[in-house]
Every structure is written in C-alpha cells, then in structure tokens.
Amino acid sequence: MDLHKNTVFPLVVDLDGTLMRSDLLVESASQFLIQHPLQFFKPLLWLMRGKAALKTQLAQRVQLDASALPYNTDVLDWLRAEKQSGRRLVLATASHRVLAEQVAQHLNLFDEVLATEGDTNLKAQAKTDALVARFGEGGYDYVGNDWPDLKVWQQARAAHVVDASPALLARAQAHGNVGQVFDSGLPTSWRAMLKAMRLHQWMKNLLVFVPLMAAHQYADAQRDVLAFMAFVVFSLTASSVYLLNDLVDVQDDRHHARKRHRPFASGALSLITGWLAWPVLLALAVVLSVCVMPVLFTVSLGVYFVLTVGYSLRLKQLAVVDVLTLAALYTLRIIAGATAIDVPVSFWLLLFSMFIFLSLALIKRYSELKVARDAGKSGALRGRGYQPEDLELVSSLGGSAGFIAVLVLALYIQDGQAAHLYAKPQLIWLACPVMLFWISRAWLIAHRGRMHDDPIVFALKDNVSWGVGAFMVSVLVLARVLS
Question: Top-level CATH class of 189-345?
Fold first, then answer.
C-alpha cells in the first residue's frame, strides 16, 4: 500500500498545531483578554459549562485575522501539491466552526470543514467517531500533531505527523501506518522564551547606574549593591512588559516584515506560556523591590510599569504621545536609579535625557515610516498614529531634539553644579562636537534606510557608537581627575 500517492482517500487535516503553529482557542482567548481586560473572569465561567461552550462564546466575541495566522508553510505547501493532484482535502479541527470556516475561506484549499459546534468538542475520540462515521475505518488519511490525535491515527489509513515529540512519534510509528513526517525546526520553548524576554534589551536598564556615576558615588559599596539590584528589578519588569507587549501586538506583528518572526507571532512560543510568564516575572520584580529597595524606588517602578502598559495598550497608537512616552520611560530609569541610591536627581541630567531619548524615539518612528513609504504604502501605519507623509516632519522634530540635548550639555558645563563635581568642567566641551557628530550620523543612517528600527539596539552593535561612548567617558574622567 502506498501511503503517499493514493488520491482516492481524502486527506483530513488538523488545524491547531498542525496546519498552524498556534491554537485558535488560545488565539481567541488571548484577543478577548486584550480587548476586554476587565472581563478576564468570563472565560473561566464559560469553561465551567464545557470547552465547546467556551469556544462558542469566544468565537462570537472575537475577530481574528485569518490571513496573518502563523501557518506551517511546509505542511501548507504539501497540501497545495496534494490538492493539485486531485486529492480531496478536509479540515477537521477542535476549533469552533466559525473560526475554522474563516481559515478555510482564506486558504481556499478545503472541500469540507468539520469542527466544534453546539455541545460537541471535536477532539480525540469525538473526532475519531466523526471521521469513521463519515469515511469509514481506514477510509481517510490524517495529518495531526498531538497526543489526542493518536486515536484518530489508529483509525486512519495513513498517519502523517507534524512537529511531534520523539515519544509521540514513536507511539504513532508503532501502529505501522505513518506516512509523512514534518519537522519545522522550531526552537525549544526555553530558547523561544529567552528570545521573547529580549535579554539584549536589558542593556537599556544600565541607565539606573547613571545617577551613581553622575554623583560620583561609585566607591560606595552599599550604593553599588542597591544600583545593581535596581538593574535586576528593572530588567525583570521590562521583560514582563516585553512579553505582555508582544501578546497585545501579536496580530500587528504578524503583518510586519521583521516582527512576524518574534516567538509569539511566529508560533514558536505558545500564547499561553506568555500569559503565564509575564505576571510571574512582574511578581518576582515586585517582591525583590519591596523587600530590598527603598520605597521611592518601588513607586518609580510602579509608575514605569503603568506607563509601559499604557503605552502597549493605547499610547503607542497616538502620534507624538508615543515618542514622548518612550522618552519618559528612559528618563524614569534614571529617576529610579537615583531613588535607589538616595541621591538627588540632577535637573540637567533629566533635561538631557528627555531630549536625547526623544530624538532616538523619533528615529525609531522615522525608520518605520521610511520602510512603509519605500514600499509604496499609504494611510496610517498599522498600530501607529503616523502616515508615510509625516516622514519629513518626524525627521525635523527628531533632529532638533537631538541638537537641543547637546545644547543642554553645553549649558550644564557653565553651571555651578558642574564646577562642584569636576575639577576641569571646561574639558566637557570636547563632548559636545562628538555628540553632534553621533546624533547627525544616526539620522543620516536612518535617512539612508540602514537604521535598525530600534536605535538603541543599533548603537549597541555599532563600533562607531562604542567609540563615541568611550571618548565621552574618557572626557568626563579627565574633567574629574585633572587639576
């Protein structure tokens, strides 16, 4: 018997975890939580009436974008080839019929759809019974991926296995009817989680050390420890927010050329994992902050979290407000660092921080707008409050903010506070033209379309930026020690 080429038998395909690298129940529940956060308890009430009832309620309340779901391209290409050869394709899924029909309509591959509806949750034995009743024992081939599919495979003529664990694959092969085996090569869950936590972005939280260095308190061991703990707490909080932000943005990210490869958007990491992980990281950060850090630091952390969540849910969609919020979030790290070690926050430092990070935030928006305009897109960017026509204005605002930051640095040199902290504050003037060069170069690179859409990440990978940073530190050290 040829398990690969016989087109007489219908090819029945599972949806969740097989045709797509996600689960429509999880997708719809996630979107419900995002759209109705104050009604988070309702899915639990619906679940008490059974899984079929939960799926029905969610399907009636949530709109999913079938065109952007993380489909398994290898399986999809194979199904298209089978369809062209004359094979009858059937989508059989435990997802609700309303959502399954949307997927089937988008893909335009399936001749028939069997799905959960009414009180019947079409999974495991229920799916097996439905397929045997429809096609007879051994009268169909089945493509699946999970342990509940074992029952369906055992009644099928051929079992095609997708992204199964070694143990599940061995159980399926023991029955002797395994045909195609697909392995998408997805990263392990823990690797995907580390990527989703964006550990490289923790570099931004080094800003909490700035007040320690600016106040020249780095020789104080107790303050060093507190600053380090502030870094850890902020990093855990930031990662929890990155996870939440990616969960909220998952549908928009799937339409983005680069962001669609993020763990949640691509299906490499389950949305369930994200919804469980981000509160755990946040709780750990809060416990550490409350137990170890000063009260004002915990307050600063709370403001940072609330503002970041506000940015994720709404503020990032408002033009100008979004970049001001990003600049404020960077400045809050500096304020939190000062509260952690109990030193006053310099007016000049806060002013410099707001303008320099506003410039960098505008570079980020400029890069997104340039990509959109170069691609010939019109209208507002998805999930943003800008249009490609705003490119020149964003550039003007961003360049001006960067130059004002340098002006603030120049004015600080003439202030009495600089004379108190530095033996030769005049040497800091050397930093001004270097800062002008760095900001101008960053905008020039963005204008040429070669800027990473996150300029902070770009700077961390840019040798020139490291050289500029080293020069700035050297100037400050010399201004401090020379007499």
Answer: mainly alpha
CB 128 within 8 A of CB 152: yes
Phi-psi group of 379: left, alpha or beta (phi > 0 → left; psi -120 to 50 → alpha; rest → beta): left
Give the pairing type, strands 89-96 and 141-144.
Answer: unpaired
**What is the DSSP secondary structure assignment for residue 202, as one 8-state letter?**
G
Q: What CATH number does the domain located at 11-182 have?
A: 3.40.50.1000
Q: Is 217 exposed, middle or buried (0-12, 13-18, 19+ CB in 10 A)?
A: middle
What is the number of other CB atoms lying within 10 angstroms of the CB of residue 185? 7
Residue 4 has pLDDT above 70, yes or no: no
- For residue 182, list its beta bridge partners: 162
Helix (H, G, I), strand (E, B) or coil at 452: coil
**Predicted local confidence at residue 456, as pLDDT:** 82
Give per-residue pLDDT as tens, 69-97: 999 999 999 999 999 999 999 999 999 99
User: Do 189-345 and 11-182 have the same topology in CATH?
Assistant: no
Q: Count how many Cα atoms sit within 13 Å of the Cα of residue 454 in the half-sphere of its side chain.
A: 12
**7 — pLDDT class (breaks 50, 70, 90):** low
The domain spans of the chain are 11-182, 189-345
| Number of Cβ within a 10 Å radius of residue 483 | 4
Q: How far is CA 423 from the centre of its chain?
A: 46
Parallel, antiparallel or unpaired: strands 11-13 and 89-96: parallel
* Amino acid identity for residue 244 in this structure: L
